[in-house]
Every structure is written in C-alpha cells, then in structure tokens.
Amino acid sequence: MTAFTILDDSTAWRAGFEQRLRASYAAAGLGVGAVEHRLDEVRAGVGGWTVAAVTDAGTYLGHVAVTVADDNGTPAGRIVDLRVEPPHTGRGHEHAARDWAEQWCAERGARRLDVRLTEPAGELFGDYPVRGQLRTRAIGSPPEPVDGVTARPMTQAEYPGWLASEKRAYVGDIVRSGALSPAEAARKSDRDFAKLLPQDLATPDNSFLVLERAGEPIGTGWLKHGHLPGVTYGYSLHIQDKHRGKGHGRAAMAVGERATLAAGDSALMFTVWGGNEVAMNLYTSAGYRVLEEGRSIALPRSATS
C-alpha cells in the first residue's frame, strides 16, 4: 500500500529536483545564465514546501512536494514535484501521490490546485485543464521578413490606446484559461501593468512596436529584453482582427525574433494561455518548445475545475 512520510530533511530530494529542472530548461533552449536564474527563482520558494517520501511496505518509491499559499486572495495549493522512480512506475503509485497531494492541500484550505509541468502531462494530469504554457526558442540568425511585414517604434500618441487594449486582452486571456474570475483578472491586470511599465513608453529595456505591411498598421508588439540572461520575453505580438488568417502571425514572430537579436539576446520566450489552441499550434510549427505548462483544478475534487 502506498504510504507518505513528511521529510524533516529534503536535501537529497532537492538536489535531484534541481538537476532535473536544469536538464529540462537547457533542453528547451535556455543558456546557462537563464537556467541558473530560473533555478534561483525556484530556490526562493523551497523553504515553504512540504516534501513527502512515497513508500510501499517500507520501500522507497519517490517524492511528492506540495505547498499552499495565497494567490490574489484565494488560497491555492501547488504540486511542486511528483516523481516515482522508473522501476516502480505504472503500478498506481503516481495516482496515489496525486490524490494525497490534493487531499493535503484541500485540508489546508486550498480552493485550487496548480501543477507546473516540464514534460507532457500524460494520463496523470490529463483531467487538469491547461491554464497556460511558457514557450521558448533559441534564435540563431535574424529571420528574413515574412510577407513584407516590418516594424517601427510605437509613438507616444499610439501608446494610451494600445495600453488599454493590452489590458483588456490580458484580462480576457486569463478568464478564458479558467485561471481567475473576471474581477480577479482585472485586479491582476492593473497590478501587473503598473509593475511592468512604471515609466510607460519610456520604461527601459522594452520594445513597443507597430507592425506594418505596405505602410499600413496591421498589429503591435511588446517585448522585454533581458527578462532572463540572454532571453527576451514577448508579452504580446498582436495582429488586428481584420488582418488575421493571412499568415501574419508567423510574420509577427519573425519581427520579434529580429528585435530579440538586435537587443543582444539569443532566445525568445512567450506565454500562451490555455484555450488558445491557435497560438499553441503556431508556436509549435515555429519551433517554440514548452518550457513549462501550468494546469489546475478546483478543490475539493467534487467542484467543477
């Protein structure tokens, strides 16, 4: 019978966990500096995690690590890690560990349970809806412009309308993914934009672009350079509705890749929200790998996820 024992010393688990993360991040195209930066972010939260050894009749099988914290006013649980060693997989221990994590978090008041994956979910988390993916790709050389789409800097006059549109779109993405309610998403949007753009259009290390084709504006782009060492983060590459369906999405990504290299970075990263299969398919076709995928369900399990 699968059993769980909370560890007083999780040093051995932590070393193995970091090693697996390091290999996964590197395989997705991040350089050494970016990998270590991501690991530092993970390490910052380790002290608040609870790690349990998974055993059966005294035999060690693996680990499960969990935590509960406030997220925008809602207690949220998180499965930080769940691993059963290969000799013991496929015997129900993974499902037992998932069920234990769900119960542990629910008992501590969590109303939602998140899991962040660095490999395909498979059947274990197949019924956890996808809330978002972090995609990345190493950029070797500047791509040629696609379909004659070019970019120019956004003007001060264009910025207020763009900002209002971006905030609305951000709220819509979050709500569509099922991650937060409309009110929670609106509050998150206000907080995030205030933090990310304290100087509006003059905020350093950001590119605000207007995408054009034959002199006509067809979309916009917002990129944060040096988001991680050597990595530009694409907050948005947006094509206007009337210009969609014409292959301009790939053209916009080429614009972002050229801007990434021009800023001195060598990889481009995006978040794509759950429910946006069109964007996911576009990123896949363009060679952007899933660095992390977030999934979640509502707690208790009987609630609608």
Automatic annotation (TrEMBL):
Domain named N-acetyltransferase is located at 149-305
UniProt cross-references to PROSITE patterns, sorted A to Z? GNAT
- The lineage's top-level taxon is Bacteria
Q: Which InterPro entries match?
A: Acyl_CoA_acyltransferase, GNAT_dom
Q: Record's Gene3D superfamilies?
A: 3.40.630.30
Pfam annotation, one family: Acetyltransf_1
Q: What is the designated name of this protein?
A: N-acetyltransferase domain-containing protein
